[in-house]
Amino acid sequence: MKRVFFIVFIQSAIFSSKSLGAEEGMPQLNPEFWFSQTFWLILVFTILYLIIWKRILPKITDNLENRKKTISTDLEEAQNLKKLAEERYKEYKKLINDAKN
């Protein structure tokens, strides 16, 4: 049984390879198709450019602006908290020195 399947497989591989074969050469390199390829290339990349420019780029710029705002407010808050901590530390040191004397 296995032998029959093997023989059928080999025969189908031999006889179908020529009937299913394509023309030789690459159609991309055939100058006959260059105009249509150039047209579709320009069309597809123009559409992609417009989609990116109108839809994706505004979202990215908004996210970058929000990130800048968040970072600047966080830095201001950190500086204010640092000043407050330094003042409290000075008060603490003063209380410790007063308690020792």
UniProtKB/TrEMBL annotation:
GO terms for cellular component: mitochondrial membrane. GO terms for biological process: ATP biosynthetic process. Residues 61-95 form a coiled coil. Signal peptide: none annotated. It is found in: Mitochondrion membrane. The keyword NAD does not apply. Keywords: ATP synthesis, Coiled coil, Membrane, Mitochondrion, Transmembrane, Transmembrane helix. The chain crosses the membrane at residues 37-57. Pfam families: YMF19. Its main location: mitochondrion. Residues 27-98 form the ATP synthase YMF19-like N-terminal domain. This is ATP synthase YMF19-like N-terminal domain-containing protein. The lineage of its organism: unclassified sequences, metagenomes, ecological metagenomes.
